[in-house]
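Progress report, Aim 2. The chain analyzed during this reporting quarter is listed below.
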Amino acid sequence: MINKIKTATIIGIRGNYVEVEVVISNGIPSFTIVGLVDATVKEAKERVRGAIINSGFKYPNRRITINLSPADIRKNGTHFDLPLAISLLRSSRQIGGYQNFIDEYAFIGELSLSGEIKPVTGILPMVMSLYEEGIKKAFVPWGNRMEASLVKETQVFVAKNLNEIVNHLEQKQKIEPIKNEYHFDRSDEFELDYSQVKGQEAAKRAISIAAAGSHGLLMVGSPSSGKTMLSKRITSILPPMEYQDIIESTNIYSIMGKLSESEPYIAKRPFRNPHYSISRAGLIGGGSHPKPGEVSLANKGVLFIDELAELKRDAIEALRVPLEEKKVNIVRNSNTVTFPADFLFIAGSNLCPCGYYSDPYHPCTCTPREVSNYMKKISGPIMERIDLHIKLNTLNYEEFKYSKGKSSAEMRKEIVKAREIQKERYRYYDVNVNADLDEKLIDKFCKVDSRGERILKLAFEKNIITPRTYRKTLKISRTIADMEGSIEIKEKHVAEALQYRSNLGEYN
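Predicted structure tokens for the chain:
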């Protein structure tokens, strides 16, 4: 008789339903797992054997054949331990007096040799995939209980060891499903606030526009001009995450093992700040079993790369696709895995190797050739995909001492208002923010008054903007108008937008 136990696995950031089929037959004792499995699954044999014996059960010393179906998707990970153990106990008739009762459940978890059930990565997407298959009851490790309970429609059962599950299945000691009592922390209080930043009001304005329309931003300036300080506070002015955004981001962090009992979900927008020495795979994602990179960990949040010009060339060029398409496709073994990469891109860079070109307070030690070649490390296509460009100046003493700008709360209020306008405007379209507008929607929603058109024409004729950056300018103008609550894009909106595009040729 073939016994089937329900479980799941991970492909990309999605869960996939898997059935564990077990046959125990006469013959030379053996343990065979088939179904396109890797070494981590094959190693389950010894963990499962130890867990069964040390939990007080008999290990079936016969010919054991296990199939993980469907056989055309690769399985990896230690989370198959628990369903394998349950299937062996059921097939050897050590449990199973309530066959139909067992069939209601799916099982996910790693086993120690003592029978303890250990937490695993990817619980949330796996439980979600089980629900999509109509399976509404799942046993998960105690350490994953908070994460799993995010799937509100599923009854989540937790256990600390194999014996607890067996006692429940045999209806000897009932386990109650855990309750979902989540109250996501969406408070407006942040440790870092723009009220702490002295001066740089022009940069704060550019950051507000970037946040309001989800436009990429490049800040150039000498060391200590405030690029990092300004960037680290951007999440404090972004709108709160929606429930679906929380689930999507939590999925990513779950499969990467970056959740904990103290932080079982991602309810505040992520801020990722990888070092410029990061590899292409670390930035974009990859590996033999593809994992998300920094662009996906920043999904629904902010990706900040300081010293963009120092980033490896292949890594810089790899940013083209996520900046344009908001996703990353990775091909392995004829299979394509897609990771979301919908982030606000913020980059910082010096203007030369020493960092002090054009700094009024520090002499530059670079040669003219070095200065000329430095920013050319960033290709034109990448520069064109970053909507806003701004140069930061070093503060003098008076600016540092006496300047007082807006707080994050004040800036956020303006940004949330602009985002709400965009959400309502694009409610019948597959976009949410101005940065995502395609050519057709730009023509429809980015109408400019006659005086604004004259400015655009002049900028185009003087090569200040290209056909691609022309459309970028219109989208930026649309965001500036939204921040003022203006239905029409006016001359002043276009003029300000051009300020963030006109220096492109100076840097590259």
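The chain has 23 helices and 18 strands. The two ends are 70 Å apart (CA to CA). These observations will guide the mutagenesis work planned for the next reporting period.
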